[in-house]
């Protein structure tokens, strides 16, 4: 089993080249830095956790609003020009946002700068999935190899959410969170540009050209795709509540600089589990994985509500981190198998936006909740969201995928899910 898993990863890297994963990892790292770091940066400069949550929420909402548009534009125009323009624009926006926070601008101004910084995010994580999966399938890869791609991509997401908050935390301990934001602006400018100019940047556009594209037709999405997005939305609520709870608890304990490191500990476990997901046998279907992953999220989040020490927090979040990669990998796999090839980049960015959207709303709500009632209240909100995600997965059922006219002959049947009420 282990040998087969290693061979699958080698095959994927042989198809993409070793440079592409490196560029996509460092290109998506700034997103993790500014999403988590916004709470720390604005809290540090304004002195209010609630203000930090509101501004971070604005940043995430900017990303959620424009993210699907970036994916749709990449489907139509190709990734190269889209990623290049947004990477350079995002670097400027991050720099302006950081300067505004350090200058202690009023909250409305910071909210506006946060929205711009979020709206210009190039979406390298979901676009990398939309780039590599068709590349692997075009090379003869099956569903298992496509799943290996998604495991690798989700692991890189988790590693970025390990390193990103850790860098922000280290910058906070060493001097100021703004140092990490300067590094984020530089990374997105350099690595985002390199990702855009990589030879594979032309692949998605070539994959969607043809009669369907020429007519301007946009194949409809099956209901199952929206169900998966709902599950990812509540997973985002869980992560946003945990982020607010971790920040609040470390402040209560007099160790605010530890927040990024605690978050990193959670991400390490998630990354390890994410890599191992490629070894899950195909007989353990995606619907069953989704149910198990959401049930585990609901159960493992409960101990956070009663955690009241730094050592206990590290222990609990390390175990809790095991649930994130399976949820994300399964959600993106269901999305990849449900959307038509012509809308893959849009589908992936929409799935990512659903997850980030849950975080966005929760950052503002949970920040105020934690200030008023303590960290346990924020963690309780996250646990409730995980329970809702489990219910969504539990009432779902299989449905044959709806394929585009162009891809109907080429694409094999793949299992996706939809609510019982929507089933024919």
Structural features, described:
The chain is mainly alpha-helical and 424 residues long. Helix content is 78%, strand content 2%. It contains 18 helices and 2 strands. It has a two-stranded antiparallel ribbon.
Task: Provide a compact summary of the structure.
By secondary structure, this protein is mainly alpha-helical. It is 78% helix and 2% strand. The protein has helices at 2-16, 19-46, 49-77, 79-102, 107-119, 124-138, 143-174, 178-197, 203-208, 211-214, 223-252, 259-276, 286-300, 302-305, 310-320, 324-338, 344-373, 375-394; strands spanning 396-399, 416-419.
What tags apply to this protein structure?
424 residues; mainly alpha; Growth Hormone, Chain: A; two-stranded antiparallel ribbon; 18 helices; 2 strands; 78% helix; 2% strand; globular; disordered C terminus
Morphology call: globular
**Helical content band:** over 70%
Total helical segments: 18
- Spell out the CATH superfamily: MFS general substrate transporter like domains
CATH class categorisation: Mainly Alpha
**CATH fold name:** Growth Hormone, Chain: A
Q: How large is the share of residues in beta strands?
A: under 5%
Topology as a string of helices (H) and strands (E): HHHHHHHHHHHHHHHHHHEE
Radius of gyration: 20 Å
Across the major sheet, the strand order is 1-2
* Name given to the CATH architecture: Up-down Bundle
The total domain count is 1
The main sheet comes to: 2 strands, antiparallel
How many strand segments? Answer: 2
Structural class assignment: mainly alpha
How confident overall, as mean pLDDT? 81
Low-confidence stretches: 204-215, 400-424
Terminal-residue CA separation: 38 Å
